[in-house]
Each structure stands twice: as structure tokens, then as C-alpha cells.
Specification:
Elements: E1 2-13, E2 17-27, E3 30-36, H1 37-43, E4 48-59, E5 61-66, H2 83-90, H3 98-111, E6 114-120, H4 129-143, E7 146-153, H5 163-169, H6 184-197, E8 206-212, H7 220-232, E9 236-241, H8 245-255, H9 259-265, E10 273-277, H10 285-292, E11 295-298, H11 300-305, H12 313-319, E12 323-325, H13 338-348, H14 361-368, H15 370-377, E13 394-397, H16 416-427, E14 433-438, E15 441-445, E16 448-449, H17 454-468, H18 476-491
Helix pairs in contact: 2-18, 3-4, 3-17, 13-14, 14-15
Bound molecules: zinc ion.
């Protein structure tokens, strides 16, 4: 059965700009025709029509780096801090139901117009890994969202970048959990089994990717094994890199060269790889990333909240690096609002100085759509545009009412199609996302999930959290966090710079 979706304005291809009176025809999970509503309707006269002339249609967006944290971290009492101190506290988070966390997070994402999330899994229970993964995947599936499931691995330095020395320096009375790294063989067995299970692209609701968590947390040998494994299983790799200045310092101390030069020397860089964050790059790294075809997932909110810095997105774009946008479970308003993140990415991409390049709203939208899907699922994936042959993942945004109407400026605009993208990205938020379709199926209609009862899920998560409240939290974690701060204080501070 063919259905039509129409809108008064649309951005079928972020780079090509805005069009009016647009419609797509959808058969099954795919777009089979796109263009002027009148022509599409004439071509499919019997088809049902959804949407309307007062709405704006966009390709659904891709959250190119996240962790399925559900509630974020403020509700768990984990204060924002520099990454290295924050991670010590993060390890103390309560063990909430992985199904509810993924479902809650998935609902927040789809409600903000995201159809696909890269979930980098923070494993809580090594012994229960299989059920933890299947519960997580089930949560996303029940939210109706596509997931790219990344299982990271580490084998060093999780507590501090010089873990042995740091542990040796800790007061004896501190009661720290012993170091626990996942067995390497077990890791590759689990990944191989997942890769087999989800080998066929099929409806593309689940895709597997692998990778070391980050170069300071994984030995060279382990990183190389991950590359070999990814290559032999035709999987992409996802790695945190150069999120903080301390990670850059670690690389220079460890290898006496820049991190990316080192990664290139050991064969890690290639078009199969996406780096999350990539803030503290050296001048020569930009061309290197472009040359090797490495993608970058930019996480503007998280980078501000964890005091990491601001990635030089204009330079990445100017060099031809593909950039996507990730929420990293750490958005400004703790609400996983993708439209607000695009707004922040756009704003921060325009830097101080008369000679700074101007990054336009279309480039920001491209990062959230086509380019984001490219670095997350591969450059050939048919997602991120509203064109024939593409999967039918789309969003209908409403202008809002009264003082919540972001579109008021259109009424005075000489060229509404030229003003609309900026008005939308400057003013629209999740509350304006009315309907979301994933693979030809409406998963959000009239601001509500069609898949589950959102209030019921929120209640269940609240109960789950309440049951954890009395679970003992190690008070030693706060002390270790302060000792970690003292350690990095000795390393010094990042150089002052504008963003
Ligand atoms: Zn992350």
C-alpha cells in the first residue's frame, strides 16, 4: 500500500535547501517518489495522505554518538566535572534496568526527531553481558528507533591514564573495586555472535559495530586486533579520541608523537572508523583524517558540560572530513533534544574573528542528517535524505502556537524558503516535533509514541530508581575523584584559547 506524506515546507536534502508544497510517496519501508505534492498526488491518486500544508518535513536525524543513559547523569546525583574526574563518579551510578534505560532514552530520541542512535555500550555486568545486550536492544526496538550497537573494550587505565602509579599512590584504607577488564576472547566471541545475528541489513533496525573505548584505555595490540576483527566481519569501528587535553598529553608522553600520527602508524585509521569528540587535534591531523576517510562524531553539549573544549568543526569541514552530531547522553537540558544540539553545533561552528569561515545552517543540518548517517552506518546507507530509494525515516515539525511559534518571521520574509532553515534550527525544539516515521512506520504521532505508553515507562523507571536509592554507594568514589583531580592538576591545564 502506498501512502503519501505532505508538508508546506521541506528539506529533502539539507544541502540543496528548502522547497515548498512537498510530498513523498512511501511503499513499505522505502520512499518511491518525492516532489511537488500536486504531482505526487496525481501519480498515486488512491493513496492516503498524511501531514499537511502547515508542517515542515525533514529527514529523521542521526544521533551519531550516545550511550543510552536514559535519564542522563544529573538525576543520578553525578555532578558535571572534567571527564577524568567525572568518570570516577560515573562508575558509581546505580544499576538500573538496561531495558528501561534504552527504552526511555529511545523514546526521548524519537520524540526529538531522531530515527537512529549509535549506542556505545557502557557494560555494567561482565557476567551478564548477553542478557544486558539483548535487554538494551529490546528497549530500543520497543521505542521504534534504529540502533547501531557498539560494544567497546578496554584493557588499561580506566581509573587514570597512569593507572598503576595512581593505584599505588592511593591511601590503603580506600576500598576500591579491583580492576576488572573484559576477557579479550570473550569480547570477540560476543561481537562475532552479534555480527552473525545481525549480518543481513534487512530492515536495518540493528547494526553492530566494535572498537576499543579509547586509545588511552586500550593497548595498541588490542586496538589492532579490533581493526582486524572489524575488517574480517565487515563492521565499522567507533572510538572515543582526543576528548580532553589530558588525552592529548597522554599520547605525547606515551608515544612522543600526536595521538593520530601514532594511530595511523599502527594501522587504525581508515574509512571504517569514526572518532567521537576529536577536540584536541594537532594542525596536521585535519588533513590526515580527511585523507584516511575517518569520520568524526561531534558532541557539543557534552564537550561543554565535561569542560573538554570545543571541536574545530569549521576546520574539519573545510578539510573535507565527514562530521556527524552526537548527544553523548549529556545534553544541555538533560533532555536528549536533537534539534537543540543542531542549534548548538551550528552556533559553536562559527568562531570569533573576522577571518573565521561562516558555517551555514545547511551544513549544520547536513551533519545531523546525511553526513551523520554516513559516519554511523557507512557512506552508502540510504538514510538522511527524502529521495526515491531512501528508507522512509522522516519528521514532521509544526510551527507551534502563540509565543511558542518559531515560524512567525516567515510572514514578513521576502523569500520564506531561504529564511525557513535558519528559523527552524534557531527556534524549534522537541516540543515542535509532531510526527516521526521510521522505515515507513509512524512511531510518533501527535507528539506521542505509538509504540508504548510513555507515562508508564517513566513510572517504571522512577520505581526502578527508587529501589536503587538505598543500594550502598561507595563514599570512597568521591575521595578517589578528588585524588584524580590532584593527579591531573600536576599535569597542568589546557592552554587558554577561544572556542
Ligand atoms: Zn561518549
Amino acid at each position: 500500500v502506498t501512502i503519501l506524506v505532505r508538508a508546506g515546507f521541506a528539506l529533502p536534502n539539507a544541502q540543496a535547501g528548502c522547497v515548498t508544497d512537498f510530498a513523498v510517496a512511501i511503499d513499505g519501508s522505502r520512499i518511491i517518489a518525492a516532489g511537488a505534492f500536486r504531482e505526487i498526488r496525481a501519480a498515486f491518486p488512491g493513496a492516503d495522505v498524511s501531514g499537511g500544508p502547515d508542517l515542515v518535513m525533514l529527514p529523521a536525524m542521526c544521533d551519531s554518538h550516545d550511550h543510552g543513559r536514559g535519564l542522563g547523569t544529573t538525576p543520578l546525583g553525578i555532578p558535571d566535572d572534567i571527564l577524568e574526574v567525572w568518570l570516577v563518579q560515573l562508575a558509581q551510578q546505580p544499576r538500573l534496568d538496561p531495558y528501561l534505560l534504552a527504552l526511555f532514552d529511545g523514546l526521548r530520541l524519537v520524540r526529538s526527531g531522531v530515527s537512529t542512535v549509535l549506542h556505545s555500550h557502557n557494560l555494567r555486568d561482565v557476567d551478564g553481558i548477553e542478557s544486558e545486550i539483548s535487554d538494551t536492544l529490546r528497549g530500543y526496538r520497543d521505542a521504534g528507533i534504529r540502533v547501531v550497537f557498539d560494544l567497546p573494550i578496554t584493557d588499561q587505565n580506566m581509573l587514570a591514564y597512569d593507572e598503576d602509579a595512581f593505584r599505588a599512590s592511593l591511601p590503603a584504607e580506600l576500598n576500591l573495586a579491583p580492576r576488572q577488564y573484559m576477557d579479550r576472547q570473550r569480547y570477540f566471541d560476543v561481537c562475532a555472535s552479534l555480527a552473525r545475528q545481525y549480518a543481513e541489513p534487512g530492515d536495518r533496525m540493528v547494526t553492530i559495530c566494535v572498537g576499543p573505548s579509547g586509545p588511552q584505555w586500550a593497548s595498541d595490540e588490542l586496538m589492532q586486533e579490533c581493526v582486524a576483527f572489524a575488517q574480517s566481519h565487515h563492521l565499522r569501528m567507533h572510538v572515543h579520541a582526543l576528548e580532553t587535553w589530558y588525552q592529548r598529553e597522554y599520547a605525547f608522553r606515551q608515544w612522543r608523537t600526536s595521538l593520530l600520527a601514532h594511530l595511523d602508524a599502527i594501522g587504525l585509521l581508515g574509512p571504517w572508523l569514526t572518532l567521537a569528540h576529536a577536540i584536541w587535534l594537532e594542525p596536521s591531523d585535519y588533513a590526515l583524517l580527511a585523507d584516511r576517510g575517518v569520520g568524526v562524531a561531534h558532541n557539543p553539549s557534552s564537550n561543554l558540560r565535561l569542560r573538554s573544549g570545543v571541536a574545530d568543526v569549521p576546520r574539519l569541514l573545510a578539510e573535507g572530513v565527514s562530521v556527524g552530531i552526537g548527544l553523548d547522553g549529556h545534553t544541555l537540558d538533560e533532555d536528549q533534544d536533537m534539534l537543540r544540539e543542531v542549534r548548538l553545533a551550528w552556533t559553536l561552528a562559527n568562531r570569533p574573528g573576522a577571518s573565521a569561515p561562516n558555517v551555514g545552517v545547511h551544513q549544520a543540518l547536513e551533519m545531523a542528517t546525511r553526513s551523520g548517517f554516513g559516519i554511523t552506518l557507512g557512506p552508502d546507507v540510504p538514510l538522511g535524505r527524502l529521495e526515491p530509494g531512501y528508507l522512509a525515516d522522516l519528521v514532521l515539525v509544526e510551527p507551534g502556537q502563540g509565543i511558542d511559534d518559531w515560524s512567525i518571521g516567515l510572514s514578513g520574509a521576502p523569500q520564506p524558503v531561504e529564511l525557513l532553515p535558519a528559523l527552524l534550527v534557531r527556534g524549534a525544539s522537541r516540543r515542535h516535533v509532531r510526527d516521526v516515521m521510521v522505515g515507513g512506520r509512524w512511531i510518533v504521532r501527535e507528539h506521542r509514541s505509538t509504540c508504548v505508553d510513555e507515562h508508564d515507562i517513566a513510572d517504571r523507571l522512577r520505581e526502578n530508581l527508587a529501589r536503587q536509592a538505598n543500594a550502598s554507594r561507595s563514599s570512597d568514589a568521591a575521595r578517589v575523584a578528588e585524588l584524580a583531580r590532584a593527579l591531573y592538576t600536576q599535569w597542568g591545564d589546557p592552554p587558554a584559547r577561544t572556542w
